[in-house]
Write a structure and sequence with these properties.
Elements: H1 10-16, H2 27-48, H3 52-55, H4 71-86, E1 89-94, E2 101-102, E3 113-121, E4 132-140, E5 161-169, E6 173-178, E7 183-189, E8 194-199, E9 210-212, H5 223-233, E10 244-245, H6 251-261, E11 264-267, H7 280-293, E12 297-299, E13 319-322, H8 324-334
The structure holds 6-O-phosphono-alpha-D-fructofuranose.
């Protein structure tokens, strides 16, 4: 009797792909599993966020007399707890922590990896029930192979990432990641509490009709970005313009939609903030790794994001990311103003 495999869970998929990273004896698999477990715990709390009035606002105590944490603090604590007890991570850089967190315990003594993360990006959208996300990036440590990680383990170019991914807490909860062998998406099935393979080998369309940018900042944008926005708005039946503007104000949600449907997301430099708003280590690099693995592109308007040499764990860079033809068209407009080139 022929049995058809019902689902492939994240755990099964990681084990099946173990051969993709021969140097690892399962450590990276366990690290990805730890991230998946923390994501399920965060998902449970994100789904209750709408009940804050009943369960208590952050900073208060709830009906059980427990102190209620802000959801981004809760998420940060969950991922730090999972990573620091899983034994595979020797240090963490988090959007929520000014300094990186060295992990100095017995179980992590020989850990090989460091993790950069934005534990809950777009958290200002929580109380209006808009999708939010977790973004993570994994590097092999460069410092001596015993004990807690050091700052040099974080200051590696994005090309050195061994894995990167995001969790989107939306109409469904998905985990999307790459280890450099393509991009795969897993949807959480709450009935069995497993992330199940739902989007195998994701590929971004080369062209799209959606542009994502906060046009409220239009007056502060450099001329090249203003010109590109006008290009998107011009009428041209051959290039299907005008394009559609979609801007959720949640990077993971905008990125995920553009990855599937095609489109470009831009967080540009402005004269006030010449490096834009988004962080290189735990927002731009991981999404750039995924974008390139899915056949699309990510630059700062001039340079490939993954080639930018980090100097600080919280450094900001401008981000132009999405369908290759759209990013390259925006770059053509940026090229007309070299003064902004870093
Ligand atoms: P603005 C959320 O704070 C975030 O980091 C991204 O998720 C989002 O795309 C961007 O900032 C929104 O920033 O300045 O347009 O409100």
């Amino acid at each position: 009797m022929e049995f058809k495999k019902m689902v492939t869970t994240l755990g099964q998929f990681i084990i099946e792909r173990q051969a993709d990273y021969p140097y690892s004896k399962g450590e990276l698999s366990r690290l990805l599993r730890d991230i998946g477990i923390a994501a399920k715990i965060v998902n449970r709390e994100v789904n209750k966020a709408g009940l804050a009035d009943i369960l208590g606002e952050a900073g208060e105590t709830n009906i059980q007399g427990e102190s209620v944490k802000k959801l981004d603090t809760f998420a940060n604590d969950q991922f730090i707890s999972a990573l620091s007890t899983g034994g595979e991570c020797c240090a963490i850089a988090s959007e929520e922590n000014e300094e990186f967190i060295p992990i100095d315990n017995l179980v992590s003594q020989n850990a090989k990896y460091v993790v950069c993360m934005d534990p809950l990006d777009g958290s200002s959208n929580i109380d209006v029930n808009v999708s939010i996300g977790t973004i993570f990036s994994i590097y092999r440590r460069k410092s001596k192979a015993v004990g807690p990680g050091t700052i040099e383990d974080f200051l590696q170019k994005g090309t050195e990432q061994v894995a990167a991914g995001y969790i989107i807490y939306g109409s469904s909860t998905m985990l999307v990641y790459t280890t450099g062998k393509g991009v795969n998406g897993f949807t959480l099935d709450p009935s069995i509490g497993e992330f199940c393979l739902s989007h195998p080998d994701m590929k971004a369309p080369n062209m799209g009709e959606i542009y994502s940018i906060n046009q409220g900042n239009f007056v502060h944008f450099p001329p090249g970005v203003k010109e590109y926005i006008k290009y998107c708005q011009d009428l041209d039946k051959d290039t299907n313009r005008p394009y559609t503007l979609r801007y959720i104000g949640s990077l993971v949600a905008d990125f995920h939609r553009n990855l599937i449907k095609g489109g470009i997301y831009i967080y540009p430099p402005t004269y006030k903030s010449p490096n834009g708003k988004l962080r290189l280590l735990y927002e731009c690099n991981p999404l750039a790794f995924i974008a390139e693995q899915a056949g699309s592109k990510a630059t700062d308007g001039f340079r490939r994001i993954l080639e930018i040499e980090p100097t600080d764990i919280h450094q900001r860079v401008p981000l132009f990311i999405g369908s290759t033809e759209m990013v390259e068209k925006a770059e053509d407009y940026m090229a007309k103003q070299p003064e902004l080139q870093s």
